[in-house]
Amino acid sequence: MSLTRARAVVLVVALGALALAAAGPAWVRAETTTALDPHVAVAVSGGDAAPAVNAAGLVLVAAGLALALGGRLARAIVLAVVAAAGVLVAWSAVAVAVSPQEAATAGAVAVAGVTDLTAPASVTAWPWLCAAVGALAVAAAAGVGVAARRWPSSSARHERTGASAPGRADAPEAAAAADAQVDPHDAWDTLTRGADPTAPADR
What we know:
It is built from eight helices and three strands. By secondary structure, the chain is mainly alpha-helical.
């Protein structure tokens, strides 16, 4: 199945939407304590743990829509942006998955106002899934770049409206002459003589 322009647009937009969706659930879980509650659960979403993922996801959606427009140069720029956004998504997600302590501490501050954790930070599957989406975005940019070589070139749809067609230079003058008003009485007299009232008068 060939990767057409429409399919490429859907693919990149879908990857951006997946990155945004993967950033919603909790990526890091931990536990902290306060003076009132010795067991306070800490859950940090992907958007909080790695804000760059949301930004890169929005860029992917916008870049996917931009693929439907523009020529070869614009397409090359858009695909470079897609690849860069994919790298950012993957790198941000892996960074949180490998080292979740900082995100868990920030979550504890947001939830309980303390920095001490009473349980080690654990990582869910979501950052790894998000990293996979980023890798797919990079692969998609490369695949679309190869497939785009077979896409038909955009035809020139907009031409100069001021240019007249060949042989039609006198069209405005002819239209003006045809629209000239004929006096009703003269037209009736001409018809009674069996002549055409719209014919030009002999000079």
